[in-house]
Amino acid sequence: MNTNPHKPTAAFVGASWTALLAGAGAYLFGLWNTDMQLNEKGYYLTLLLYGLFAAVSLQKTVRDKLEGVPVTGLYTALCWFSMAVTITLMAIGLYNAKLALSEKGFYGMAFLLALFATIAIQKNVRDSHAAAATH
């Protein structure tokens, strides 16, 4: 168990939420305004949603294991596999997309920023709850 929990600073919490809103917002704004077919838009939207869920689940699983909370090996492997699948499918989709290289970079970076921000937000939530429980 974490014996010295620290509450995250307001600046880090704000930066994490800002990064999520910037990454996911830019990604969705670009997706809304692109000339892709609806099935392509659905593919990229599903990847974002699956990726965000996989990132939160992986962060929780890793944190649970560090804190001694029992987590099955199968679920841990599934979390890692899900993260790998979303990133791989995004890379394959962007590689094959009929988009300008700058657009491919935009979607890739917005996707990764949203995943990173989700992990940071999940960490902030856990740290805030752990700090509140000790006080």
Automatic annotation (TrEMBL):
The keyword rRNA processing does not apply. Keywords: Membrane, Transmembrane, Transmembrane helix. Residues 12-64, 75-127 form the YiaAB two helix domain. Pfam families: YiaAB (PF05360). One of its GO terms (biological process) is DNA damage response. NCBIfam families: PRK11383.1. This is YiaA/YiaB family protein. It comes from Scleromatobacter humisilvae.
